[in-house]
């Protein structure tokens, strides 16, 4: 395989610094070792972010995905949390794992939900959330939702977001006890795949323990205008049996964060307005 090691190192460097170059220097040998150990036929690289490299492959159990990262702790956490969610059938099965590497079941067709011409219906998404939240043990979570929200707030603040309203709403939400589940934690629609007859499948969890409404916010806020966001909010809450008031509040907490990420200025403005309760 013709790997552009310089390009991989440059992609990983913003996350890992110069250590990315040292890690990439060992990548070919690491791949050779895993191919032999797990009896793989390695395929093409897949698009990934700044924390890992990912390859299509075929193993003894069929099509798979091989993921490697310099952050062995993050890989270990991902493996543990995918196994927590495994009984739901809504995450890829873990086939093998080693330090800094995991072999996952390939999902077919595997289309990113954010790329689908039509989004899943609120009823379909509610079934997905119900299955996912019914599987894991919140006591196994590596973090609490409050800690994860702080990370998101800090990142958004660095990008110039005004989070004064979000922080007030967050405090109000945490002041009222509610059910606690094992959350995926990062369920934007780029982390949800279409699995054909299997339905929706989640990847790349940032698992935490907290309010089940939190995992529903991205589906709502992916609506391109406030009318669509309100429709999704109300129909999803009804289908999933979750508190529409809490879902609305969590959407308003996170909408200003989302507004700093999206490239479409119209959608960004709609998110900011939703966060202010202007609907």
UniProtKB/TrEMBL annotation:
Naturally occurring in which organism (per UniProt): Micromonospora inaquosa
Cross-referenced Gene3D superfamilies: 3.90.1200.10
Name of the protein this chain belongs to: Aminoglycoside phosphotransferase
Any GO BP annotation: secondary metabolic process
InterPro entries with a match to the protein in the record: Kinase-like_dom_sf (IPR011009), NH2Glyco/OHUrea_AB-resist_kin (IPR006748)
Keywords, sorted A to Z: Transferase
GO molecular function, one term: phosphotransferase activity, alcohol group as acceptor
């Amino acid at each position: 395989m013709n790997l552009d090691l310089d390009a991989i190192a440059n992609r990983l460097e913003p996350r890992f610094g110069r250590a990315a170059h040292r890690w990439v220097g060992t990548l070919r040998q690491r791949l050779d070792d895993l191919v032999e150990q797990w009896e793989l036929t390695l395929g093409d690289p897949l698009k990934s972010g700044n924390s890992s490299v990912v390859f299509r492959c075929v193993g003894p159990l069929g099509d798979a995905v091989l993921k490697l990262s310099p952050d062995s702790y993050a890989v270990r956490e991902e493996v543990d949390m995918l196994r927590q969610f495994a009984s739901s059938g809504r995450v890829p099965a873990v086939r093998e794992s080693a330090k800094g590497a995991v072999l996952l079941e390939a999902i077919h067709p595997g289309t990113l939900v954010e790329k689908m011409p039509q989004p899943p219906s609120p009823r379909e998404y509610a079934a997905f959330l119900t299955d996912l939240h019914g599987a894991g043990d919140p006591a196994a979570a590596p973090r609490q939702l409050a800690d994860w929200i702080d990370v998101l707030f800090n990142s958004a603040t660095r990008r110039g977001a005004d989070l004064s309203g979000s922080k007030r709403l967050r405090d109000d939400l945490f002041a009222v006890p509610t059910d606690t589940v094992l959350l995926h934690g990062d369920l934007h629609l780029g982390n949800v795949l279409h699995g054909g007859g299997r339905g929706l499948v989640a990847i790349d969890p940032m698992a935490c323990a907290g309010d089940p409404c939190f995992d529903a916010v991205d589906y709502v806020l992916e609506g391109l205008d406030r009318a669509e966001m309100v429709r999704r909010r109300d129909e999803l809450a009804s289908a999933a049996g979750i508190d529409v008031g809490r879902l609305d509040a969590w959407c308003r907490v996170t909408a200003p964060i989302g507004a700093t990420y999206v490239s479409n200025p119209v959608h960004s403005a709609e998110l900011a307005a939703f966060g202010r309760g202007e609907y």
